[in-house]
Write a structure and sequence with these properties.
Number of helices: 9
Order of helices and strands: HHHEHHHHEHH
Largest sheet: 2 strands, antiparallel
Strand content: under 5%
Strand order of the largest sheet: 1-2
Structural class: mainly alpha
Helix content: over 70%
Radius of gyration: 19 Å
Shape: globular
Distance between the termini: 19 Å
Mean pLDDT: 89
Length: 284
């Protein structure tokens, strides 16, 4: 496959090259996410272990497919390495993933604690072992069916491909808009609240990618956020006495704001970033 040397190619050719490569990266992700609901039992209990196991199995297949396509594009079309597209080694990336998960989990848990003191508690409605089983299975399902493939494609390859035409914050905004459009088309919903959430996620996760040179911190944050949101909003193992708007405040606005403030003020701890790419490196 011909390798494109963007620095010397005419700009229309560079744009066309980035567009077709991004399209190829998006196709398996979109097809897989669209097909996933059809693979699950009709009238399913979302917390049922069988349902979650099916999600996990489908998620592993989707992650493998998307990463394989990205590998072919990075190696074949670009002549680069996976780490150049933000897909750094899990051996070092797990630290970033755990840190990203903590940046969501700690402020979200604190917020629900305060809401409980104010009369809107979050209560467990199932026995403890059932809750633990559901949380672990759901976390793995979200990780392999949503967080890894979506971050690998958007914060990984899409930002890498856009690096030929848009650098820094321009690239972050561009991929965030694509992420928002992708989510709207996939969900068949143009609700402004949903669109704004996708846009904020795209910008925030894109910034983490630019900051760390890796997708893993956004993978951890993404997995924690979606696991928490699905547990509170769509599963019956937890019951929240506040409304949906209050729940989204605790699940989204406050943790996202705190995470942005902490990361902006303190950066990434040295121990967390050990072995990964330098924070100032930009990909593309």
């Amino acid at each position: 496959m011909e390798q494109i040397h963007e620095s010397s190619a005419p700009r229309p050719r560079v744009l066309a090259s980035a567009a077709w490569r991004i399209t190829l990266a998006l196709l398996p992700l979109g097809a897989g996410l669209a097909a996933l609901p059809a693979l699950l039992p009709e009238g399913r209990d979302l917390s049922d272990p069988t349902t979650l196991t099916l999600r996990i199995a489908a998620g592993f297949s989707l992650s493998a497919l998307t990463i394989t396509v990205i590998l072919c594009l990075v190696r074949g079309a670009d002549g680069r390495r996976l780490r150049d597209a933000g897909l750094t080694s899990p051996r070092t990336g797990w630290r970033l993933a755990v840190w990203g998960a903590l940046l969501w989990t700690v402020p979200a848990a604190a917020t629900f604690g305060v809401l409980g003191l104010l009369g809107a508690p979050l209560t467990v409605t199932v026995p403890g072992p059932d809750l633990v089983r559901t949380v672990l299975l759901l976390l793995l399902a979200v990780l392999v069916a949503e967080a890894v493939p979506e971050e690998a494609v958007f914060r990984g390859y899409v930002m890498h491909a856009l690096g030929t035409v848009a650098r820094g914050w321009w690239g972050i905004i561009a991929q965030a808009l694509l992420f928002t459009l992708f989510g709207a088309v996939l969900r068949q919903s143009w609700n402004p609240v949903d669109l704004s959430l996708f846009l904020v996620m795209g910008i925030g996760f894109g910034w983490l990618r630019l900051l760390t040179g890796s997708i893993w911190m956004s993978v951890g944050f993404h997995a924690a956020f979606q696991t928490g949101a699905q547990l509170v909003l769509t599963h019956e193992v937890l019951s929240f006495d506040g409304g949906t708007g209050t729940a989204m405040l605790a699940l989204g606005m406050i943790p996202f704001t705190v995470a942005a403030a902490v990361t902006s003020a303190l950066g990434i701890p040295r121990a967390v970033h050990a072995g990964s790419r330098a924070p100032h490196e930009q990909t593309g």
